[in-house]
Amino acid sequence: MANPNIASRARPLTSLAIGVALSLSPLAVYAESAAGSLWRGATYAAIAGLAYTNPFNADQFNLSAGAFDEHDALQLEINFRYNLGEGRAIFSQSQLTPFVDLGYASWQEVLNGIDMVNRGNAFTVAAGVRLAFPTFAYIIDFADARIGVGILAPSYFENDKGERRDFGGPFSFTEELAVGGYFSEKQAWEWRLAVQHYSNHNIYTQNAGMDFIKLGLGYNY
Q1: Are residues 66 and 43 in the same domain?
Q2: What is the CA angle 98-101-106, rounded to 5?
Q3: How far is CA 74 from CA 107, 176, 184, in A?
Q4: Does Signal count among this protein's keywords (predicted)?
Q5: Would you state the pLDDT for residue 28?
Q6: Do residues 69 and 170 share a domain?
Q7: In the chain, what's the furthest Cα-to-Cα distance?
Q8: Rounded distance, CA 188 to CA 218, Å?
Q9: What confidence category does residue 11 fall into, taking pLDDT thresholds of 50, 70 and 90?
Q10: What confidence category does residue 130 fall into, taking pLDDT thresholds of 50, 70 and 90?
């Protein structure tokens, strides 16, 4: 037999629970926003610390930002580069240096402004070469070319308009061409303008690639 006291308490308790939930919802939203700001701040602080201390003994650290206008996408990428040897002379006063780099990229949508909400990740390993030559057009000192593989998570990118680019699966190839120059004769700081492509080369049924035009700032240790 049902307890009448419990039955009589059910309605007011339910109303109280709903009222508390509604009153706490703004606090929950604020807490979620604050937590997001904290972990993003921690991420950027960690990246800055790694770049400054160079615990992995990289030869170069590079930070770049790029856009893919067709899909309202923004990419933020960091790379640790390792030179493979001293390089080899090629042509007159030019040198070719092979390298390998490890990269991480975060993809965001920018239709309604940069909201810093991560909508995709790319972890890459790439090998390439740098062709250094006498300064061209006053500001260009080298050209880079690299090709590698990456893991995408998730394997699609959806923008704020609900448009979705399906990459077919988590595995991807990435290629990049870049030109750049040094800010001083010490060749410590450099800039790079690059075009980067992601696609799976038809390994999967879906192959919606993306192309980012990027501007990067690098430091040579």
Answers
A1: no
A2: 145
A3: 6, 16, 29
A4: yes
A5: 47
A6: yes
A7: 98
A8: 8
A9: low
A10: very high
